[in-house]
Amino acid sequence: MSYGISAALQEAVYARLLGSAQLTEIVGSAVYDELPPGPMPSLYVALGPEKVRDASDVATAAARHDFTVSVVTESAGFQTAKAAAGAVSDALNGAAMTLGRGHLVGLWFRQARATRESGGLRRIDMTFRAHVEDD
């Protein structure tokens, strides 16, 4: 197994989300790999935690990355957050992306959880699974 592909995968996912016209229409440029200092926009998307497991066999170094993409909003309901989450899912599920290291075998939506947080925030955490192989 190699964790070396992790940065390349994150970079490709971030670029894919920034390049999604559907998502940009909803959240503008408020897609973050790292949350900026200061006040946050009322609706944004953030890359989150990741869990990686070995998926190698005797011939190939591979890993399975389960990573979270979150949609957070101050809106009273979930409608806007769900529209943004749908755009994230459309951009990533089954996407073919070129990585700076290794290659992406597949990328799939796994699950989502919508919650109300303190301060009136609404949050949708979506988990995606990427299977990558190191060249």
From TrEMBL:
InterPro entries: Gp17-like, Viral_Tail_Comp_sf
Domain of life: Bacteria
Protein name: Uncharacterized protein DUF3168
